[in-house]
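Repro:
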Amino acid sequence: MTSFDMFGSNVAPKNLWVGIGCQLGVSKFAIQQAIESVFAASDLDLATIAGLATLDRKANEVGLVAYCQESGLFLKTYAPERLNSVTMAHSSQLVATLVGTASVAEAAALCAAQTDILLVPKQKFRLDAESKAVTVAIARQDL
């Protein structure tokens, strides 16, 4: 589906939801770099991002909130019980033990996009060996 602005120019639909998992204290820069890296590797347009989605306990994560505010993106959050209701091929018992759900990035992307098909499965990202980790997954919402 293609949309056009009032001048007839092609406008990319904002239909991609980015699921984010991240370690406590991750920087806005690390989140930005992770998203840009995954979008570039997947040949996707950053302008098509509808918003970010994550675990509810990340709702006040400073780097994540700053990235959304500066990018003008929505941030949807979900309780562990909602994320656990999504059947995932890639789940982690370690993550389940730490945060109460076996999938954050993938399950959150699927919940936000209201679909059961991932466009890009989870990709783990670090700026360097000492930096905090960010996990990114992408799902497309049918408009």
